[in-house]
């Protein structure tokens, strides 16, 4: 009998394993994926980006996607369309593969309804906790996971326990000076982007060696603050890999067993006093919906039919501009082509803004260089200006010139994906995975305000690129959901009729079931989620310790 059984080993599960095992409790972590460490990670673009090294084969484990357009859902078989929402099946989860852009939520993110009012067609609510409740845990993440950066004063800077980050900001490219000058001229505040990447050796880990392969890749130096490198490798929790949990069993009041299978369909069972579900937002809802019994005929903890509802992603999009040697001095050319070091600049001047008399929640814009993946960069060059396919010497010359005498600066817009009745998780009535379980169904819909806010922010970013002298400037804001930025499905709240979890992320209907991944979030804020997931998981760990003691 274990004290705690944790399902999932990413940013939602690892802090609880770390805290409770270090407090002397017997902890087991069940992880579907494999255990990779620093020595296993490399920059193999084919394996990582083309062949899905860290995600399941879609012929064995797929999703069904229903996309809402023109008044109806259009059904897509994920295996047939190569469309899925897996984002990291390995110990430490997708935190191994993150870019590590770390922004805190701000106080207004915790009270969207009371600050900005109701929005037609959206299920906007206030959180049951405040920024002040979570701030000490944001601070803890900085110190335990390791966040590098430099705090600058700006209009929407949130309150902090400490005046600065525990680690200095990472090295940046010389072109950052152009960005800072452009922002000064425009009256914008340039913010050094905080990163969950160590800028110096610390926490029993190496500092960054500036390979510039962060997003989608595991970190071979250990500098990136993944749940595995920062937490699981430093605690005594038992980690069981190749463990797909397909059902939780309850007696109506408590969960008492977790059933899992290996990739060869060999069944196992685990007994524990407390169960923590942190399998990623979609899979967490799917597991609960697949765990029907006589006490919960619609799925575990789902007698109010709220499990899977109010699924959210990060709204927004991205854009880019290219800097070409013809418009730069020799010194600027050298600065632009500095290899490995980061760009690391953000804007939050419009975290909220007014149009007429109406106050809108805005968002964050992160600026970064185009990803180093060579295949995707080359593929963009295979057509000439008239759209004709190129080959031979002409293509080689074009590729060489584009890669050696220019560089692309991109930006990513993060704003709220408003929760609605049309965006939710379900399970399919017919399709099953290799384990014989109904596959997850992701029902997609983006609220029109998501696009409006994203467009507003993107146009601000374009002004910076123009001021910097970029060419080929473009952007795209859409309702396409990023699979690595997903939350909701088990929102927390004080009302058991409209939420799955209480304010401590315990299921309202069960005495010993907690959910600690991004599922708990009723609204997402206008920043990437990982820092908030980590912080809340440390908070939940403290609540579980109180229960056990």
What does this 3D model show about the protein?
With 549 residues, the chain is an alpha+beta fold. It has 13 helices and 20 strands. Strands 1, 2, 6, 7, 8, 9 and 20 form a seven-stranded mixed sheet that branches. A hairpin with a 4-residue loop joins strand 7 and strand 8 (255-261). Helix 1 runs parallel beside helix 13 and helix 5 packs across helix 13 (530-548). The longest helix is centred in the C-terminal third of the chain and has 21 residues, at 448-468. It is globular, with a radius of gyration of 23 Å.
Question: What descriptive keywords fit this protein?
Answer:
alpha+beta, 20 strands, 13 helices, 7-stranded antiparallel beta sheet, globular, 549 residues
**SS class:** alpha+beta
Mean pLDDT: 96
* DSSP, total strands: 20
How far from one another are the termini? Answer: 17 Å
**Overall spatial form:** globular
How large is the share of residues in beta strands?
A: 15-25%
């Amino acid at each position: 009998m274990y004290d705690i059984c944790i399902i999932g080993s990413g940013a939602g599960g690892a802090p609880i394993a770390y805290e409770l095992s270090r407090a002397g409790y017997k902890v087991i972590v069940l992880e579907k994926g494999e255990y990779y460490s620093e020595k296993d990670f490399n920059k193999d673009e084919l394996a990582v980006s083309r062949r899905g090294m860290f995600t399941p084969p879609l012929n064995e484990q797929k999703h069904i996607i229903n996309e809402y357009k023109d008044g109806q859902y259009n059904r897509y078989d994920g295996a047939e369309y190569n469309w899925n929402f897996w984002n990291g099946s390995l110990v430490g989860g997708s935190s191994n593969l993150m870019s590590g852009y770390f922004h805190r939520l701000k106080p207004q993110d915790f009270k969207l309804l009371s600050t900005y009012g109701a929005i037609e067609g959206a299920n906007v609510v206030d959180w049951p906790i405040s920024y002040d409740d979570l701030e000490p845990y944001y601070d803890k993440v900085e110190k335990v996971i390791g966040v590098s950066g430099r705090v600058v004063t700006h209009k929407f800077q949130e309150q902090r326990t400490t005046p600065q980050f525990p680690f200095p900001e990472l090295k940046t490219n010389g072109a950052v000076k152009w960005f800072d000058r452009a922002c000064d001229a425009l009256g914008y505040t340039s913010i050094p982007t905080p990163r969950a990447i160590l800028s110096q050796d610390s926490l029993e880990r190496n500092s960054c060696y500036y390979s510039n392969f962060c997003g989608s890749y595991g970190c071979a130096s250990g500098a990136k603050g993944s749940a595995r490198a920062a937490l699981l490798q430093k605690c005594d929790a038992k980690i069981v890999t190749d463990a797909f949990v397909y059902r939780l069993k309850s007696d109506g009041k408590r969960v008492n067993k977790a059933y899992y299978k290996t990739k060869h369909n060999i069944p196992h069972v685990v007994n524990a006093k407390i169960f923590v579900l942190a399998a990623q937002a979609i899979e967490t809802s799917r597991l609960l919906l697949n765990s029907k019994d006589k006490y919960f005929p619609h799925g575990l903890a789902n007698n109010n039919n709220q499990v899977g509802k109010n699924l959210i992603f990060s709204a927004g999009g991205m854009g880019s501009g290219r800097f070409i040697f013809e418009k730069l001095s020799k010194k600027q050319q050298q600065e632009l082509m500095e290899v490995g070091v980061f760009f690391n600049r953000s804007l939050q001047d419009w975290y909220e803004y007014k149009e007429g008399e109406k106050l809108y929640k805005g968002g964050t814009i992160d600026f970064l260089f185009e990803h180093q993946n060579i295949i995707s960069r080359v593929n963009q060059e295979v057509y000439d200006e008239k759209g004709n396919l190129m080959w031979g010497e002409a293509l080689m010359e074009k590729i060489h010139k584009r890669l050696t005498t220019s560089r692309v600066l991109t930006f990513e817009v993060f704003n709220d994906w408003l929760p609605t009745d049309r965006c939710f998780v379900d399970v399919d009535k017919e399709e099953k995975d290799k384990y014989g379980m109904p596959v997850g169904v992701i029902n997609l819909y983006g609220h029109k305000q998501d696009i409006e806010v994203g467009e507003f922010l993107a146009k601000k970013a374009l002004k910076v690129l123009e001021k910097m002298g970029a060419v080929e400037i473009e952007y795209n804001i859409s309702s396409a959901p990023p699979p690595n930025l997903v939350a909701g499905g088990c929102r927390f709240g004080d009302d058991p009729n409209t939420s799955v979890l209480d304010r401590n992320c315990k299921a309202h209907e069960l005495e010993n079931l907690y959910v600690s991944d991004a599922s708990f979030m009723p609204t997402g804020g206008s920043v990437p989620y990982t820092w908030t997931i980590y912080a809340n998981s440390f908070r939940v760990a403290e609540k579980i310790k109180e229960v056990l003691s």
